[in-house]
Design brief:
This protein has about 160 residues and is mainly α. It contains 7 helices and no strands. The protein is elongated and about 70 Å long.
């Protein structure tokens, strides 16, 4: 039985990193390059925001300013780490993640109805952070998509 060696396909970014200076290339190669699916990106962002909400509740006495401020990098990371085929999901999952994580810091009390009212109040009063994070994710997605289209349309060199 013959054994065939599988040819490894290198990512274009890997080729560019290898062409860079040796010291910098080694440092860049050590950085993680996760590629999340649309569902994985949504789960990542929701879980991260739930953790952020819990830490905010414990450390900062449920400050919605801190929660909103920490939402921006989570939305950006989600938009940067999602696969190119699932780029459209990053701005969609950002508001879902914001809503999933705001529960610990919403300040509702008095049973189920009080919790829901606290959640709705937190979402409505701090919609600016929600819009800002969604805008950050959308801008990153638009830039990434433009770069992908530019690479596709660039003339290929003949070796």
């Amino acid at each position: 039985m013959e054994r065939y060696k599988a040819r490894t396909v290198r990512h274009p970014a890997e080729r560019a990193e290898r062409a860079a200076a040796p010291g910098r290339a080694a440092a860049v190669r050590r950085l993680p390059r996760p590629r999340l699916t649309g569902l994985g990106g949504g789960l990542f962002a929701s879980a991260a925001m739930l953790l952020v909400g819990g830490f905010d509740w414990l450390l900062f006495d449920a400050s919605l300013f801190v929660y909103g401020l920490l939402f921006l990098p989570v939305a950006a990371a989600n938009a940067l780490w999602v696969r190119p085929a699932d780029l459209i999901t990053a701005p969609i999952t950002a508001p879902i993640a914001f809503a999933a994580g705001v529960w610990p810091v919403s300040g509702g009390s008095g049973g189920f109805a009080g919790e829901v009212m606290g959640l709705v109040s937190a979402l409505s009063l701090h919609a600016g952070w929600l819009y800002a994070g969604t805008l950050v994710a959308a801008l990153i997605v638009v830039v990434r998509k433009a770069v992908l289209i530019g690479r596709r349309r660039a003339p290929r060199r003949i070796a």
